[in-house]
Design goal:
mainly alpha; single chain; iron
Length: 264
């Protein structure tokens, strides 16, 4: 009896909230038509629980993506983005011994950013190199953590049948965008490892140490794709959590406030 009452109350709230949000903003379109498809109260509760799990997973991914954007900004502000001159998608471990660090430092010295740093500051210590290297390493590992946090739950939800037919293409799009984001990041870094262009009119014999910069098109693409991922994850999470009591009530009240303001 208690389960039936809970299901009936939840069903009423879902339908009312989804109807309101769909009319005004398009939220709730991925939720199944519970009243028409399910007869059992237990099935209703199970379906709502699965939608809650997907919503919490997506909102966690949106938070991690936002964190990646912040880390990317910190990496750029500390001028650490070009410290790692190699890219290995599935195997990227930090140096452990002093000899390994020296070898990594020697590889970095072969690229323009080191020459520019020397021209401005006179010397770069190994400890300074370790700092900028770890900043970029954390940024890359955070991106891989997003990939792991996406793949493992997505695989579980897929085989458990949690995803609706409309949700499955979105999941594939999410995964493709995550991989594309990583590729864009490396293309951006690689563009900054090239020799800066010499100014027009400068003689071939004249020494020139230019400022190494990543290509602004790759930088813009990398940043915008991260924002797109964040938006899609957040939108998808709201689409699934709209029937969750705290979220649904909050969105319900906000929607009515906006509706009344528009009508007035």
């Amino acid at each position: 009896m208690l389960h039936s009452a809970k299901a009936a109350f939840t069903l009423l709230r879902v339908q009312l909230t989804r109807s309101c949000l769909s009319t005004r903003f398009g939220f709730g379109s991925s939720l199944p038509n519970i009243s028409g498809r399910f007869k059992s109260a237990a099935t209703v509760i199970k379906t709502i629980d699965s939608q809650n799990s997907i919503g919490k997973w997506l909102i966690g991914l949106s938070g991690m993506t936002f964190g990646a954007v912040v880390l990317g900004g910190v990496t750029r502000l500390t001028e650490s983005g070009l410290s790692m001159v190699d890219w290995h998608p599935f195997k990227e471990t930090p140096p452990f011994t002093e000899e390994q660090w020296i070898l990594e430092f020697e590889k970095y010295k072969q690229f323009p950013e080191y020459s520019f740093f020397i021209s401005q500051h006179g010397e770069m210590t190994l400890s300074r190199f370790k700092f900028i290297w770890y900043m970029e390493y954390i940024h890359r590992m955070w991106g891989r953590a997003i990939g792991a946090a996406f793949i493992a739950p997505a695989t579980y939800f897929w085989f458990k049948g949690y995803f609706t037919s409309g949700m499955k293409p979105r999941v594939l799009i999410y995964g493709s965008l995550i991989g594309f984001q990583g590729l864009l990041g490396w293309l951006m870094v690689r563009s900054g490892l090239r020799e800066p262009r010499r100014p027009a009119g400068l003689g071939k014999d004249e020494e020139y140490v230019g400022v190494p910069r990543v290509d602004h098109y790759w930088l813009c693409g990398h940043f915008c794709s991260a924002l797109l991922l964040y938006t899609l994850f957040l939108w998808g999470s709201l689409n699934h959590l709209v029937q969750h009591p705290p979220v649904s009530l909050f969105l319900f009240y906000i929607t009515w406030i906006l509706y009344l303001r528009v009508v007035d």
